[in-house]
Design a protein that fits this description.
The complex is a heterodimer of chains A (283) and B (358).
Chain A lengths: L5 H31 L2 H4 L19 H9 L2 H32 L5 H13 L2 H14 L6 H7 L1 H17 L3 H9 L4 H12 L1 H17 L2 H6 L8 H8 L1 E2 L2 E2 L1 H31 L5
Helix pairs in contact in A: 1-14, 3-14, 4-7, 4-8, 4-11, 5-8, 8-11, 9-10, 11-14, 13-14
Chain B lengths: L1 E7 L2 E7 L8 E5 L6 H9 L6 E3 L1 E2 L2 E2 L10 E4 L11 H11 L4 H14 L15 H13 L5 E5 L7 H18 L2 E6 L2 H7 L2 E6 L2 E6 L1 H6 L4 H6 L6 E10 L2 E5 L4 E3 L2 H7 L6 E6 L4 E3 L9 E11 L4 E7 L2 E7 L10 E6 L5 E4 L7
Parallel strand pairs in B: 3-9, 3-10, 7-8, 8-9
Antiparallel strand pairs in B: 1-2, 1-4, 5-6, 10-11, 12-13, 12-15, 13-14, 15-21, 16-20, 17-18, 17-20, 18-19
The chains are: A mainly alpha (283), B alpha+beta (358).
């Protein structure tokens, strides 16, 4: 905390923090207010009388109703959920094994391999989608959830591997040695001792991977084409922006509903998440 | 252990270690950090591969056996308790892995908890325990297994000084009660001396001396062991062995001592050569009038440390500094000049080149 006179606390702590919080939360507020505002207020020119952009006296759920009834939004939600969960599970499984191996097993080129995996994570998706599109077409996976379930791990596995590798390294290796002397073969020591101890790390890797796949845009845009296959980010932006017509109310309702699962997941696991990122296990 | 060796890429960590440990014996490996004692222990445990030589437990070569099949239990320096399990589950884990009956597990955990008086902690998690309690749980986890050998890797070094002394006594009692063979690694020579039936002093990957504690103290094999065992450490003085008037003298610019009769025959071949004289602080005393003049030397007192049961005098004899432990009734003062006498039966000599005891 800031020491000294109250004004110092206000100037150096409360004011900057408030500015930061407002800047972060304003988009959400804007999303909520736009969702609830009736169309006649949304498209009212700025110089009209009673123009109040930050407030409405006639809240309505008509945009939400439209979104759910008139568009394929529920299908998109379902698609996104399925794809994100599947991609996250695949990536967590591979990341767990790879992270464990890279942090614990001694083998040739282990360090090099670790760095290599990290570098693949740095290749931008905006480049990777071109060759990947070719592969997807050759395997005839285009326009199906599999196109994303199998391509998301290309960036999620390196991410999970790195995060978990760091976490495993923070677990004292004596724990595992002790388990092996106690009579557990390596895989049992891994499953009964290391994984339970690494739960905060595993959860944060999972949450992060889930969020990344939930928000992913470019692969979803390129690999999926029919409306009923789309994910929320792509569906909302492609089906609710027609030419130069923006259905702002529905767009914002889609964005709002689409961000609820992620916000829910975060708030639920936030403690694990923090300790997973900051690491450290006390024996 | 026969001709045990361990090479890391280009470091020879353990060199030709031979050691026979008898059943029920408490053997302590002691040495400064990096001397290979922990590596040796980890090879016995099966946590490090063996580069050369072999390890047998109960006549059976175990080189290729994984840790779980060696019938050993190990207590680690940081206790390595499983943080997500209760004390009970920590202790039961090894037995569960070995598919013991539930009732047998329960009986053994209760028995070990009784021995260590940690019955009321069984439902707690490790993070709710103090350092000493964690230490007990780690011991309990080893005890329940009824292994052939206990391995201890500096188990007391994370405890505060008072608790360490207390746990040391308990470990000794425990060993007497269970009679299980134990190998104990420590860098603390006091721990080594108090716990070990036999003590193995190691340095730079080699065994320097193996013996019971008093043997190491009274007949150190070389200068390193002499300096490592005993506190405060032995005083050393470079001297030249000189034959004069039919007797041998140890001479240096700062002192001149007549070598007592029992040592003469051993030192005779060194006449005219350099050697190192070693004398323990407790074998020095303030000379009284009437003491033999040829076994004393003049010193100036620099520091007086009053420890209650003894007084440590840090003294200078010319350019040499030494420590003498004298009776608590002594009245020596700082800057005082006095004469110290040494106990003729307890003088040690070491070869200047090989550092081996003469």
């Amino acid at each position: 905390m800031i020491e000294g006179a109250p004004w110092r606390r206000w100037v150096f702590f409360y004011a900057p923090v408030s500015a930061f919080v407002i800047a972060l939360l304003f988009p959400f507020y804007w999303m909520v207010i736009t969702t609830l505002r009736p169309d006649r207020e949304l498209y009212r020119p700025w110089n009209a009388p009673n123009y109040a952009p930050f407030w409405t006296n006639n809240p309505t759920l008509e945009h939400v109703r439209d979104l759910l009834n008139e568009t394929l939004f529920t299908t998109w939600m379902w698609n996104t959920m399925l794809i994100s969960l599947a991609a996250t599970l695949i990536s967590l499984f591979c990341g767990l094994l790879a992270g464990y191996a890279l942090s614990r097993l001694k083998f040739r080129f282990a360090g090099l391999l670790g760095t290599g995996i990290f570098i693949t994570y740095l290749v931008p998706q905006t480049l990777l989608f071109i060759p990947l599109a070719d592969i997807i077409r050759n395997f005839k996976l285009g326009d199906s959830p599999w196109a994303l379930i199998l391509t998301y791990p290309t960036f999620l596995i390196p991410f999970c591997t790195w995060l978990l590798m760091g976490y495993f390294k923070s677990i004292p290796k004596e724990l595992e040695e002790c388990a092996r002397i106690d009579g557990a073969p390596r895989w049992k020591a891994m499953v009964y001792i290391i994984f339970p101890v690494a739960i905060p790390g595993i959860l944060s890797a999972g949450i992060f991977a889930f969020t990344l796949s939930w928000n992913e845009f470019i692969y979803a845009l390129v690999f999926l084409s029919s409306p009923e296959q789309k994910t929320v980010p792509v569906g909302v932006t492609s089906e609710l922006v027609r030419g130069d017509v923006f259905y702002w109310g529905e767009l914002m309702a889609g964005a709002l509903l689409g961000s609820i699962p992620v916000a829910f997941v975060y708030s639920f696991f936030v403690e694990y998440y923090v300790s997973g990122i900051t690491g450290s296990v006390k024996g | 252990m026969r001709g045990l060796n361990k090479m890391y890429d280009d470091v020879h960590a353990v060199i030709d270690v031979n050691l026979d440990i008898r059943d029920q014996e408490f053997v302590v490996l002691v040495g400064p950090s990096g001397c290979g004692k922990t590596t040796t222990l980890r090879m016995v445990a099966g946590l490090e591969t063996i580069t050369g030589g072999e390890i047998s437990i109960d006549e059976k070569v175990v080189n290729a056996l994984p840790p779980m099949d060696r019938d050993i239990a190990m207590v680690f320096q940081n206790y390595a308790l499983y943080p997500h399990m209760t004390v009970y589950d920590n202790m039961a884990f090894g037995l569960k892995m070995r598919k013991f009956d539930k009732s047998e597990i329960d009986a053994r955990v209760k028995e070990a908890a009784d021995i260590l008086s940690i019955q009321e902690l069984l439902k707690r998690k490790p993070r709710q325990l103090s350092g000493g309690q964690r230490q007990r749980v780690a011991l309990g986890r080893a005890i329940v297994r009824h292994p052939q050998v206990f391995l201890f890797d500096e188990p007391l070094s994370n405890l505060d000084a008072k608790l360490r002394v207390q746990m040391r006594v308990e470990l000794k009692k425990l060993h007497e009660r269970l009679g299980t063979t134990a190998i104990y690694v420590t860098h603390d020579q006091v721990e080594a001396m108090t716990l070990g039936d036999r003590v193995v002093v190691m340095r730079d990957g080699r065994v320097q001396q193996v013996g019971d504690p008093m043997e190491l103290y009274n007949q150190p094999a070389n200068r390193f062991v002499a300096g490592f065992i005993g506190s405060p450490a032995m005083n050393f003085a470079p001297v030249r062995i000189v034959a004069q008037n039919g007797s041998l003298w140890a001479e240096s610019p700062d002192l001149r001592i007549k070598i007592p009769e029992p040592s003469v025959s051993r030192l005779a071949p060194y006449a005219g050569q350099e050697a190192t004289l070693g004398i323990r602080p407790e074998d020095l005393s303030i000379a009284r009038t009437g003491d033999r003049n040829d076994l004393g030397f003049d010193v100036a007192v620099e520091v007086v440390e009053r420890l209650g049961s003894e007084i440590l005098l840090d003294v200078a004899a010319g350019s040499l500094s030494m420590v003498a432990s004298v009776e608590p009734t002594a009245t020596a003062k700082v800057h005082e000049k006095l004469r110290l006498a040494l106990n003729p039966e307890r003088i040690h000599f070491f070869d200047r080149q090989t550092e081996a005891a003469i």
